[in-house]
Design brief:
four-stranded parallel sheet, flat, about 20% strand, binds iron/sulfur cluster, about 45% helix, about 290 residues, alpha/beta
Length: about 290
């Protein structure tokens, strides 16, 4: 009998729930809002919200509908663009991301070069970099450190990075550049939600035969859940929907673990569990 175990913490974080609530209320009130980029990295949720009146748009084009900022936040240039159209701004930026943006700006204003540890292509990182103007540099895990290395440096992190990687990065900076650094400010901008989800995924991965990690392909925190699961030496698969589960992954497994990224709704997890149950029944019958 196959056992399905769920991670103790997973799925929609409060920051994403909050942004969705804000946007749904605004859409109910105004008939439509235009979201700058996807609200969450999850195509199914984006589709459901579209039906509710939250339309996706990369740039504000007219002032007919209010423009919503997602939980990932944006840089000041995007806010200025929106303001120039006269559109109302509905701000769904997660307060933890707002804090990170404020630190980036404050450090830059004080003359620090701001290193943002994270994915340079991620919208949150782009936004945070924007708040530090030309004083910020994104550094992806494994990228070479800036050369020459700045003397006054502030380090912050994309909120969804793993604490282990961030501390490894900081240690590396110190080990290599302690002689050139005159002042180092370290601001912990990691989000508890994602680190708790990563711990829960790691714990679960250690006791199951296979892990299924549910979330959008573009979701950074979902990918991190996959990585921490794989680090436990277990087979782990990233899926967006239950349709992607391959029966052979579950063949011979007694325990299947399921976790989900911070932008994955409960309904997606429920559908995955139902599909595993179906496959398990099929395998039992065949066996
Ligand atoms: S993962 Fe954390 S920082 Fe990101 S939206 Fe959720 S609560 Fe906010």
């Amino acid at each position: 009998m196959m056992e399905i175990l769920l991670a103790k913490e997973m799925g929609f974080c409060w920051g994403v729930r909050r942004a969705i609530d804000i946007m749904e209320r605004a859409a109910d009130e105004h008939g439509e809002v235009i979201s700058v980029g996807p609200i969450v990295h999850n195509p199914q949720v984006v589709e459901e919200l579209k039906e509710r009146g939250v339309r996706l748009g990369e740039r504000p084009q007219d002032n007919a509908s209010p423009v919503a900022i997602t939980a990932h936040g944006v840089g000041p240039n995007v806010l200025e663009d929106v303001e120039s159209t006269g559109a109302e701004i509905i701000d769904g930026t997660c307060p933890i991301v707002t804090r990170s943006q404020r630190w980036a700006r404050r450090m830059a204003e004080q003359g620090f070069t701001v290193l943002v540890f994270g994915d340079p292509e991620h919208r949150e990182v782009k936004g945070v970099i924007g708040w530090a103007g030309n004083m910020a540099l994104p550094v992806r895990d494994g990228d070479p450190l800036p050369d020459p290395f700045p003397s006054r440096v502030a380090i912050i992190s994309q909120t969804t990075q793993s604490p282990e990687r961030f501390s490894k990065f900081v240690s590396e900076v110190m080990a290599r550049h302690v002689s050139t650094i005159s002042e180092l400010r370290l601001v912990n901008t990691l989000c508890d939600v994602t680190s708790h989800q990563q711990v829960a995924a790691r714990e679960l991965a250690a006791e199951v035969d296979v892990m299924l990690v549910v979330g959008g392909r573009d979701s950074a925190n979902t990918r991190h859940l996959l990585e921490v699961s794989q680090e436990e030496g277990v087979a782990a698969h990233h899926i967006e929907t239950e349709a992607e589960i391959e029966a052979e992954w579950l063949h011979g497994c007694e325990k299947v673990g399921v976790t989900a990224g911070a932008s994955t709704p409960d309904s997606s997890v429920d559908a995955v569990v139902r599909r595993i149950e179906e496959i398990a029944t099929g395998l039992e019958v065949a066996g």
